[in-house]
Amino acid sequence: MTGPRTAPSKELGSALLSAERAALTAGVTLRELHDLDAMREARDLLHRVWRPAPDNPVMTPELLLVLAHSGSYVVGVQQDGRMIGTCLGLLSTAGLHSHIAAVDDGARGRSIGFALKLHQRAWSLGRGITTITWTYDPLISRNAYFNLRKLGAVPTEYLPNFYGAMRDGVNAGTDSDRLLVRWDLTAGPAARPTPDTGRAGEPAAPCPPAVVALDTGPDDRPVRGERPGDVSRRTVLVRVPPDIEALRRSDRAAAAAWRLAVRDVLGGLMADGRHTVTTFTRDGWYVLSPRLEFDA
């Protein structure tokens, strides 16, 4: 684990209060799960949302029970006595790795995901854990904005086709590229989670001398700009589609082209090591800044 054995009381108290407020705003309660019946309910919810192949379950109730009993994060989101959300986090060398979450379709758009993350943050700080990691699909812009801008997590690694060919109802038919992000729970105020989704007057993208390495063409397909090797001392912008999930349904070839382009450009910039992803804008740009150690 990283960090002290216990969080400072002031920081933990603030985290608990923020988590309580987020749950109240979402109209839900969150609680740790400990019995097998609750694990079956969580398993059923995971399967409703992710729709896995019958021979490839997302999780079994027995494994969820073992993970909870051994100290991992296994939580249910309740509304009117019914579980409408769940999340599993695994203890890891980094601290806590948030592996999978699910919220019923009818409960989305109510900031339940935000309430889960703040609950996870308070739970971790209460156990002396100061870092949470997780992965997400870098093409899903709403998740990128939520993770990077709203929570303040920082991408650390691009993982091409991380899970291989997936056979669930959400990911089937596309390579499973992921960004691994790291959330420092004791970072300064600029990296703290905020209940709003952006500030009025937020610029669409940074001002020059930023250069565009990947953008959208008139046919909704990716258009490459300057090559990463030409922009080592400049801020770089990498665009992703506004709704890749809809594009997968309407134009599978265009969606596949975006996967390869983002892997090459964003993944290439991150692997090169001369840039770091600093934020994601409301209108769909990854912003990468040059690392100071490469500036001469």
Verbal overview:
The chain is an alpha+beta fold and 296 residues long. Helix content is 32%, strand content 25%. The protein has helices spanning 9-26, 36-50, 61-69, 112-125, 141-150, 244-250, 252-272; strands spanning 29-32, 73-79, 82-92, 95-103, 131-136, 154-159, 178-184, 211-216, 222-224, 236-239, 275-280, 285-290. Strands 1-2-3-4-5-7-6 form a 7-stranded mixed β-sheet, with helices on both faces. A 5-stranded mixed β-sheet has the order 9-8-10-12-11. Helix 4 (112-125) links the parallel strand 4 and strand 5 (131-136). Helix 1 runs antiparallel to helix 4 and helix 2 (36-50) crosses helix 3 (61-69). The model is unreliable at 1-5 and 196-208 (pLDDT under 50).
Order of helices and strands: HEHHEEEHEHEEEEEHHEE
Low-confidence stretches: 1-5, 196-208
- The shape, in one word, is globular
Question: Widest sheet: strand order?
Answer: 1-2-3-4-5-7-6
Helix content: 25-40%
Strand content: 25-35%
Q: What can be said about the biggest beta sheet?
A: 7 strands, mixed
Query: Would you tell me the overall average pLDDT?
Result: 87
What gap, in angstroms, lies between the N and C termini? Answer: 36 Å
**Estimated radius of gyration:** 20 Å
**Number of contiguous helices:** 7
Produce a short descriptive summary.
With 296 residues, the chain is α+β, with helices and mostly antiparallel strands. It has helices at residues 9-26, 36-50, 61-69, 112-125, 141-150, 244-250, 252-272; strands at 29-32, 73-79, 82-92, 95-103, 131-136, 154-159, 178-184, 211-216, 222-224, 236-239, 275-280, 285-290.
